[in-house]
Amino acid sequence: MYPEIGQLLMNRGYSVAYEVPPHLGSARSVDVVGIRPRKRVAVTVEAKQGHYSQVMRQASVRLFISDFVYVSFPSDYAHFVLERRYSDLKAKGIGLICVDGEAEELLPAKQSLYVDNARRIDLINMAKISR
After folding, report:
1. Share of the chain above pLDDT 90, in %
2. How are beta strands 15-20 and 30-36 bridged, if at all?
3. Which of 20, 42, 77, 88 shows the smallest number of beta carbons within 10 Å?
4. How far is residue 102 from each of residues 6, 80, 98, 114, measured CA to CA in Å?
5. What ranges do the domains of the chain cover?
6. In the predicted model, is pLDDT for residue 55 greater than 70?
7. For residue 27, is pLDDT > 70?
8. Given strand 95-99, what is the order of strands in its sheet?
């Protein structure tokens, strides 16, 4: 799913990196990161085959390091999540991407109110290294 998600972000003008640690020494990596370095904007996507609760825990943490946060699932599961968890995603400002041959945004992410500038810059720098 990563290449399809990456293509969606590239089509929107982002440089893309995969499996990016949010800072040096971090054991947990971000599945897909889109950056616009000059504007200091970062988008993170946590992609899973299922496991809504697990991916939401990860995505909630990403609200502190990136401007926009998405979760992504295969198409059938993503539509199930949209139907069942729409209000939860909307309340947190987390967007939803489905992947079925190509990636499609089902719910746009809202700009994070919690992003810490220093942590975002760390992520952007790590994404530059990972590419």
Report:
1. 85
2. antiparallel
3. 88
4. 10, 18, 8, 30
5. 2-130
6. yes
7. no
8. 15-20, 30-36, 41-47, 68-74, 95-99, 103-107
